[in-house]
Amino acid sequence: MARTIFRDKLASGKFFVVPGIQDMIAAVVANKVGFDLVYGTGYWLTASAWGLPDAGIVTYTEMKNRMETLVKTSNAAVIADGDTGYGGLLNVHHTVKGYEAAGVTAIQLEDQEFPKKCGHTPYRRLIPVEEMVEKIKVAADAREDKENFLIIARTDARQSEGFDGAMRRIEAYEKAGADVLFPEALESEEEMAKACSLFGKPMMANMSNGGSSPVPLASVLKEIGYAYAIYPSLTSLAAAKAMETALLDLKEKGIGQPDGLFSFSEFCSLIGFEDVWAFERKWGKDAE
């Protein structure tokens, strides 16, 4: 069931940030920090689970299962990356139904050909705008909760059709019934501000570290006019760097207990071991 928090936050008009979640370790750490919305990122959930690139290789069923696990693990509502809807109109209908049943609060759909590519990598190919308009209409019709389950429409047209071409697509997607608009990989803060000024519906920013777009401070994004920003790669790249540093120290210096480790006892608590221990106290062989 979709949660109301996403629509409520958009309606408030107050800018907010949403971290990307690549695995369930990141999910429980985000629980600790305290977020009411998280982003189920296709790129990083794919990389963490299967060690594969975000290139349309992972199936709908595999990704739906990952989103369902994230919903169960996270205290926050989940905005889910739905790629292209995994095919044509019937696939979009099935994907929206499945994601909503999995418990996510919003689905993001993009106008690339299937199989898709990451929005900050080359060789992306787009479907005609008319096809994407139909996908948005199908997605909006397929959802059970018309009020709270939101449709995010993304265009990857900036690099192939230019800024104006991307804006024409976004205008068509807005008219088709998208709740949130997402022009991917804009190339400057000036483009971002112009895009936000053109439309009445909420605009989403993708702050992909190392990608095509600049990553200004959240306060700047707020002034530009975005409703919110996702940070899909932040926890993944931070974790990868920390792991590389620790492994190099182990290999080269024999350091197996470096400074700065997350507390093992606290992580046991975050991941649910206290419930396991309570069960053992009640039902274990040594229980009195």
Automatic annotation (TrEMBL):
The signal sequence is: none
What the entry lists under SUPFAM superfamilies is as follows: Phosphoenolpyruvate/pyruvate domain (SSF51621)
Under Pfam families, the record lists: PEP_mutase (PF13714)
GO MF terms listed in the record are: oxo-acid-lyase activity
Q: Does the keyword Aminoacyl-tRNA synthetase apply?
A: no
Q: Which InterPro entries match?
A: ICL/PEPM, Pyrv/PenolPyrv_kinase-like_dom, Pyrv_kinase-like_dom_sf
Top-level taxonomic group: Bacteria
> What keywords were assigned to this record?
Lyase
Which protein, by its recorded name, is this? Isocitrate lyase/PEP mutase family protein
Origin species: Sphingorhabdus contaminans
Q: What is the lineage of its organism?
A: Bacteria, Pseudomonadati, Pseudomonadota, Alphaproteobacteria, Sphingomonadales
